[in-house]
Every structure is written in structure tokens, then in C-alpha cells.
Design goal:
The chain is mainly α. The chain has 3 domains: about 120 residues; about 200 residues; about 130 residues, no CATH class. It contains 23 helices and 8 strands. The strands form 3 sheets. It has a 3-stranded antiparallel beta sheet. Strands 6-7-8 form a 3-stranded antiparallel beta sheet. Strands 4-5 form a two-stranded antiparallel sheet. The longest helix is centred in the first third of the chain and has 25 residues. The radius of gyration is 29 Å and the shape is flat. The termini are far apart.
Length: about 525
């Protein structure tokens, strides 16, 4: 590549690394390498193919064609497109640091943000515009993979218990399977990013007993925002899995210690710089829990033990999912978002609150209280949970505004509102959903912002359908069919007395009205088949 292009790219990368962009902090080292690989290298290669050897020779037509290439041919979405094009923005911002600066502002009358389409994103995407399009692991697939991983851990526990304290496992394949399973359990039960999970050191966890409740913490280094050492709250299962891996990985860790002793004894290496780098990395990796055997360029003779890499983690997850009988393309970055989404769905009542009680020890403990109890926790994880909360609400409200039937006082009002034309529904959702007060009752949604019924509707389901704050959608149809069936059973009890029968007949009619409002039969399909 032309040295003039490379030299100026190094200059702007260095300027960004030392000073940061206007009104923002400098990046961490990882951000710099990502910038080089994802943005600088593709653009430099593009210009070289065109015969352009200096940035001062770049014209608006070059930039326009490059943007078109990235959008139309590479089909990059807004955020990846932004990452690809920002080298051009940096060349303009840090023009005084280059020898051959750009001659014209690259974006005309617009900005990079709008050129990429991020400024035009609406609806659910607007609420989530700063978050990548990471998939949430489907519940059925998640259950398969988690149960498989848990069974591996229990098998390892049985093996270690049967063989005693001095047992050193020698089966490399089984050790790898154990490592992969524990890494997944840690990732999905903590919300850690992958680089934080694979950075866990041996023994970097603790148990804390507070008011008779056991709290389990795992410590690691947070790199993305530069916070440093942070702690994640995890269930006891996770700590047990980490402790088992610590015992089961003793063989591979001893192998690394032997290499360190061997490297330390070499007085005059052929390549001193490379030797010292390898020795220092080996010493650092010796503290890590998740290790792998790495053969550079496939050369078995050069194989050595090192900390598990991000790429190897994805390979491990793919292997784990297939072994669990899942067709899902499991990737490490899916775990953090799945964790956040599971938290939100539990808190909103879409799934069982047992998850929250298991993970956070007490269902009434707010995230703010939890964070305040341990300032070493990763605040960005809570930001991601709040982001998922907004996304969940947008999905839910948008489903209410579609054609699905609704019951409940507020549900009927929403159905009436559908006749009113809305100029930009997506923008309206993005604006209002974060502030909407929505709670699940187990048989419907409550949108009360005042005291409402004082919670009585939680225990007396038939109070909700007539309430002005109630929305009952298709998700709760099976619940109301069950309520209907229960009232039928009560009516059939001849010696229950007139009061019980009268109450059952009233609730039967209420349940019937809800079910018919949803366009369904009072008896579900399973009962009809019986």
C-alpha cells in the first residue's frame, strides 16, 4: 500500500488515541485496533485500486462511490456502515495531523451520522440505534444448550468426587468440553461480555452472606469502557461451575507453568523481543481460568497453552450448541443481550419471576439498590437492561396498535384509537414507550400510573377486565380459558353453597366475555380434543 496513505492513517489513529474526538474521550487500545481493521484497511485498499496514493487527491466522487459501494454492494447496515466510513470523518477532523489532508469536507451538507442512515432510524430501531443487531437466543434453543451445559458440569463434579483430591484429568477432549460448558454458563447467567468472561482469573470469585441471603460475585476486568475491575452477581451454580473448572483444568495449567519455567531458563534466545513477549504473555495467561492449546498457522510443533481467544470462544459455542442438539448459530455476543432480555421479560411478567429471584436474590430489589450495594458492578449492563426494557415496551404497544383483538377497559380504548390516523406511528412509539407504565398481573397488563386497585387485581383476576387501566391481549388467552374452566368446576360442586355458586357464575360470565372479545373459544384446543 502507498506509504503516504499509511502514514497519514497512522497519524490520525494516533491523534484519536491520544486526544479523542471532540467532546468524547480517547478510545481504549481495542477500539484502535478495530478502527484499523474495520475502517482504515478497507478504505486504503479501495483507494489503492483506483490509483490514489494521497488523501489530498481524494475528490467528492471518490467518497460518493465508496459510500455507494459499502451500501449497495456490501449491503452494510447503518451501524456497520458508520464503522466502515469513520476513517474519512477522522481524516477531516484530524486534518492538521496529516501530511496530505483532505481538501474538501467529505459529507457535503450532511454528516456521517446521517449519511449512514442512523439519524433516520425510527420506531424500535430508534430506541435501539446505539446497540448492534444481536440476536436473542430463542427460549427453546437456550433451554437445550443450558441443560446440556449443566449436565456436563454435573458429570465433571461426579468424576472429580469419585477420583479424589490428587486426580489430574488427562482427557484433553473432555477438558475442552468442560471448559466450553462452563464458559457458556458464566456468560448466560452473568451478562458479561466475552472478553470479560474469558478474562476471569483462577479464584476471582467470592461468596457473601447478608441478612441470611447468600450473594455470589465474580470479578473480572471490564475493557470496553475502561472501568477496570468490576464484579458481576451470579447464581451459586455459576460459582460451582467455575470452581469445578479450576480443579479440572489443573493439567493444562501445569503445562503452561512448565513452559514458563522453560522460557525463563533460556539466557540467549534467537529472537529476544519475541521471546520476552511470549514469556510475559505466558505469565499473564497462567492466571486465567479459560485456557486453550494454540498452534500458530496449524504448526503442531509450535503448539502452546494460552488464554482462550474471542474467535476460539465462538468456535467453542458453535460446537457446544451442536452437541446439545440445537441448530442455533450460537455466538458469544448473543449471551449478554439474551441475559438482558430474559431479565426484562421476567420483570415485565412475560416469563416467570423465578428467574429474577434466582438471579438477584429478592424480587423486590430494584436495579438501583442492587447497583448501590456494590459500586464495582458494571453499570453499562444496567443500561443495556433498560434499553431492552424500552424495546420490549415498543414491541408490546406496537402489537396493541395492530389488528389483534384486545379486552379490558384500556384495551377497548386502544381498539377505538386505531381508527385515528397517525402520521408517524414508529416515531410516536419511540417517544412514548420509554415513559409508559406497564406491569403484568399474570392475566393481563396494567397501565395504571396512579394507585389503581391497590394490587387487588393481582389476586382477583376478574376485577381486571372492567378496569380502565387493563389491557388483555392474546398472550393471556390461555389463562382466561383456564379461569373459565375453573368456574365451571366450581359450579358443578353441589354442596359449595349459594354464595360460591353465585360468585362462580359471575366470574364465568366475565371470563367468557374476555375470551370472546379475543375472538376465541371458551374451551382451549387441548380440552376440546379430550
Amino acid at each position: 500500500m502507498p506509504k503516504t496513505l499509511i502514514g497519514d492513517c497512522k497519524a490520525i489513529a494516533y491523534a484519536w488515541f491520544k486526544r479523542g474526538m471532540p467532546r468524547s474521550k480517547p478510545p481504549i487500545a481495542r477500539g484502535l485496533t478495530t478502527f484499523a481493521v474495520a475502517s482504515v484497511m478497507p478504505f486504503v485498499r479501495w483507494l489503492d485500486k483506483l490509483g490514489v496514493s494521497r488523501f489530498s487527491d481524494v475528490r467528492p466522487i471518490h467518497i460518493s462511490n465508496y459510500v455507494h459501494h459499502c451500501k449497495s454492494e456490501l449491503k452494510l447496515r447503518p451501524l456497520p456502515l458508520y464503522g466502515r466510513l469513520r476513517v474519512i470523518d477522522f481524516l477531516w477532523v484530524f486534518a492538521t495531523d496529516t501530511l496530505f489532508p483532505l481538501q474538501n469536507y467529505p459529507w457535503g451538507n450532511s454528516t456521517l451520522w446521517r449519511i449512514c442512515g442512523i439519524g433516520k432510524v425510527k420506531g424500535i430501531d430508534a430506541a435501539n440505534k446505539n446497540v448492534g443487531r444481536t440476536d436473542v437466543i430463542p427460549p427453546d434453543e437456550l433451554a437445550k444448550i443450558f441443560n446440556h451445559s449443566e449436565s456436563i458440569v454435573w458429570g465433571i463434579e461426579s468424576e472429580l468426587a469419585a477420583n479424589g483430591i490428587g486426580y489430574h484429568p488427562s482427557d484433553d477432549q473432555l477438558s475442552t468440553i468442560c471448559r466450553d460448558a462452563v464458559l457458556f454458563i458464566v456468560s448466560i447467567t452473568s451478562g458479561m461480555r466475552n472478553d470479560e468472561a474469558i478474562g476471569i482469573e483462577v479464584g476471582a470469585w467470592r461468596r457473601e452472606l447478608k441478612d441470611g441471603v447468600l450473594f455470589c460475585w465474580v470479578s473480572t476486568i471490564e475493557h470496553k469502557t475502561g472501568k477496570g475491575r468490576v464484579e458481576y452477581l451470579v447464581p451459586e451454580l455459576t460459582l460451582n461451575a467455575l470452581e469445578l473448572l479450576g480443579k479440572y483444568s489443573v493439567t493444562i495449567r501445569n503445562e503452561l507453568e512448565q513452559e514458563i519455567r522453560y522460557l525463563s531458563r533460556i539466557v540467549s534466545p534467537d529472537n529476544p523481543a519475541e521471546h520476552l513477549l511470549r514469556l510475559e504473555k505466558a505469565r499473564t495467561d497462567s492466571k486465567k481460568l479459560f485456557l486453550e492449546r494454540h498452534a500458530p498457522y496449524g504448526k503442531i510443533e509450535d503448539q502452546h497453552v494460552q488464554a482462550l481467544s474471542g474467535a476460539a470462544s465462538n468456535v467453542a459455542f458453535d460446537r457446544l450448541a451442536k452437541a446439545a442438539g440445537s441448530d442455533w448459530q450460537l455466538r458469544t455476543h448473543q449471551c449478554r443481550r439474551t441475559y438482558a432480555r430474559t431479565f426484562v421479560e421476567s420483570r415485565m411478567g412475560r416469563t416467570s419471576l423465578i428467574y429474577l429471584k434466582w438471579q438477584f436474590k429478592h424480587s423486590s430489589m430494584s436495579m438501583t439498590q442492587l447497583y448501590a450495594s456494590n459500586p464495582q458492578q458494571d453499570l453499562s449492563l444496567f443500561d443495556e437492561i433498560f434499553q431492552q426494557m424500552t424495546e420490549f415496551k415498543i414491541d408490546l404497544i406496537e402489537s396493541w396498535l395492530d389488528d389483534q383483538p384486545l379486552a379490558g377497559g384500556a384495551g377497548e380504548k386502544i381498539v377505538e384509537m386505531r381508527a385515528i390516523p397517525i402520521k408517524d406511528r414508529a416515531a410516536l412509539l419511540a417517544q412514548t414507550a420509554p415513559h409508559a407504565n406497564i406491569r403484568a398481573t399474570g392475566h393481563g397488563w396494567c397501565i395504571a400510573t396512579e394507585r389503581g386497585c391497590g394490587g387487588a387485581g393481582l389476586y382477583e383476576a376478574t376485577r381486571c377486565p372492567g378496569c380502565k387501566n387493563s389491557v388483555i391481549d392474546e398472550f393471556f388467552a390461555a389463562t382466561w380459558q383456564d379461569i373459565y374452566g375453573q368456574q365451571l368446576e366450581l359450579i358443578k360442586i353441589v354442596d359449595a353453597g349459594p354464595a360460591v355458586r353465585q360468585r362462580a357464575e359471575r366470574d364465568l360470565q366475565i371470563a367468557f366475555d374476555v375470551i370472546t372479545s379475543l375472538g376465541l373459544s371458551p374451551i382451549n384446543d387441548d380440552e376440546a380434543e379430550d
